[in-house]
Design goal:
Layout lengths: L5 H9 L6 H13 L8 H15 L3 E5 L5 H7 L7 E6 L5 H10 L6 E5 L2 H4 L7 E6 L6 H8 L3 E10 L16 H15 L3 E6 L5 E6 L3
Parallel strand pairs: 1-2, 1-4, 2-3, 4-5
Antiparallel strand pairs: 5-7, 6-7
Helix pairs in contact: 3-4
Amino acid sequence: MEFIPEEIEAYAEKYTQPESKVLQELNRETWSRVMQPRMLSGHLQGRLLSFLSGLVQPDRVLDIGTYTGYSALCLAEGLAPGGKVHTIEVNRELEHMIRLYIGKAGMEDSIALHFGEAAELIPSIEGPYDLVFIDADKENYPRYFDLVVDRVRPGGMIIADNVLWSGNVLKPAREMDAETSALAAYAKKVYDDPRVESLLLPVRDGLMLARKGDG
């Protein structure tokens, strides 16, 4: 998942705003107790999400794929007064941990937790959205984009994680598995969509930013 030398990443983290104590604790606990901890956004990506959220100052954020809640907490840091992050998770076994850290961060009024299949829940979560973060089942990324793009306000942003998929998106199409194929299709779909302008950042495992146009 890492595309730059560890020493360079450590240098970048050294000069990046540190995680809060709550996020540091959540980071450690995720790595020690939860399967597939590399799914966690982590320090550098988390600060980027917080930074972008602060620039947008969203009233309403949709976070597709809560995992242990790290990204939701980062996105909530940039909310406008009275704003809310609606975060969706399919795995109820993570509920206690998610709610524990939302409470430790004092974000109970800023983060609404929804459990279930994202494709079924998204239409029921009121928009418009100022910011959307997609970090869930990769095969459904194109579907999630279709579900949210018309509900993102002009000037709003859609961010998708893992779009480089450890470099597997560079393989010939015939060698791609279903997840890789969906991620490659997502990148092309966003790039070709006239409603948004796109920027693919080779940060960690790849973040694709799509800004909704004003037209």
